[in-house]
Amino acid sequence: MSRIFVTGIGIISPLGDTLSLNHTALKQGVCGISTLQLIHSNFAGKLPVGEIKTETNTLKEKLKVKETGYTRNSLLALHAFMDAINDSKLSNEEITSHNTALIGANSVGGMCLTDELYKDANSKSQGSEYLSSYDGGSVTLAIQQRYSMRGIINTINTACSSSANSIMYGARLIQNGLATRAIVGGSDSLAKYTINGFNSLYILSDEICRPFDSERKGLNLAEGAAFLVLESEETIGNKKAYAELTGYCNANDAFHPSSISENADGPFLAMQGALQKANLQPNQIDFINTHGTATENNDEAESKAMLRLFEKVPAFASTKSNIGHTLGAAGAIEAVYSILNLTEQEVYQSLNYKNPIQTIGLVPVTAYTKLPINHVLSNSFGFGGNCSSLIFSKA
Amino acid sequence: MSMFYIHQTVCVSAQKTNGVINLDDIQPINDNKLQAIEPNYDDIPPAMYRRMGRAVRLASGAALPLLNTLTFNGIVIGTANGGLEDCIKFLNQIVDYSEGKLTPTNFVQSTTNAIASQLAFFSANKGYNNTHVHRGLAFENAALDVAMMLNEFPDNSYLLGGVDEISAYQYNIESLAGSYKKESIASADLYTSKTTGSIPGDGCTMFAVSKQKVGAAAKLKAIGTIHTNKVEEVTQYMNHFVTKNLGSDTINLFLSGENGDNRHLPYYTACKNIVPNVAVERFKHLCGEYATASSFALWLACYKIKTSNLKNVLIYNNFRGEQHSFMLVENA
Prior knowledge:
The complex is a heterodimer of chains A (395) and B (332). Chain A is 32% helix and 19% strand.
């Protein structure tokens, strides 16, 4: 099977709209979580979120989008996609080739447009410009149409692990000879829908989140997008590769719609499967980018899974403390952060951590540290027990 | 890439496709919709059943007979919208109660992956679990996903499904978008209507698939997809697909996704003309138009292969004239 390399990266997050801005902010331990401003909601001015403080119309102008029906989610995705293809220096011919796949992922689609959707779905309007923009597929289709892409196009939604699965799917298309190149990633924008949804489950923190801390109070929702250009060993030529995708696995916890089981079977099986795929022993993992949402349930369960799999748990941290939880985009954004761990040979501190979870005792990385890193494991776990893990290795 | 063998199927549709199959007794279009006949839900605990939205319910009813008798290494579902009804119910709560204290049931049920995960819970299946939502090609991507899993793990077997629901909300949105016929229409007149729009349908089809030939009902030999609105690109793609996958063999039946929408007819006519001497059958008068209707077509191909002893069936379907798919199904 062909080896898979990352040759292009595009990212937009609460830490900035370029790879370099994200890198600097991570290095300096900047927290991108702040009070909700841009959404008209009862939670505005109160709830801490990882919000990109750029108005939707400004994003539209910046990206020169003239088409109708573009949602904030599509704009974030397009922003990251454009940076990724530019970074990988893909020609128009390469982008439109039958051998170039595009695999997107998101969990809210166009439901960020709460009021428009409310009116359209309840027949209280003559039809907004967004009638074909509510489903998850619309985000990927907006990019496909803009670039007239002809290869395999897909959109995945496994909630919070969506874009880890889009990365896997793209890699497998290459390994099965169905594409030579796959542009993979995900996006999600903040939405009244998800804010109220997570709030109804009592898992939103009213303070800035504290992953793996004994006093953690829940997660902060966030928005962003990231796309990676994956290319096969045979296609990459003389291009610079950021990293190699060596392992991946998807498993289901088969326990509960919105929480992880006591033994954390799903997370355990996903991590174990990714190691097997990469043909690595647990002690060869140098760093774990955890899912680490800072909910009561996730951090304890994920810790248990790490303790089950690793004799000595490697250095780990959660970038949810830097940007919050970007849901369907999290897998791809954190894949980018994991790649930075490899290319820069450094790890970034988990913010707001004070004391270990008593029953667990694990301590995340709490200071920026230079570290020799060959393999990074990145976790993404979602509602519905959908757990996925990726392993990136030094190219 | 080699695909897989289909061993068992369950099809929940507007027709008599579940249990005693009778496609001659055509169930008519009702209220300009073709809603699936709900399956037997005896195996679902009542408390759980009450929480389920239509899509999760249809999928559970279709999958449980297979989950109860077979073991799978994973579950892969294609659904464009999942539980959209629950989604709008929750959205309505947000607006109607001004973001007050809301009940999470609709929110949890509304995530599109709630279907595949519900099936995993039923069967304590901790294996591969994925949900493809790429609108008109959600099912095709789910099928490709399974094929790739089987290439990597040839001894495995998977539950593959396609499901979408038609709810009042979905109907409202799509009606505003002009997807459905404004005039009322009978099944027999769908293909001669010469107007825009189709008839909405819903349903769920489940397939037990593996690499094992022995005992198989049919083989999905190849699958191909393309995004374009140009007829000539579609025909070019079809020519390439047929040449590559059929060789010198002949097609016995062309299953056309024609849906009565005159905007989409040119694609179907052009593709039919590529295989001029082949028998043509249409299926949207049976299942209606929905994003994963191609999963119904795959079921129908398997059924026709068995009952009419056909060798090769070619399915062509498109969604909104933008997402096109070809599936070549072969007698196992």
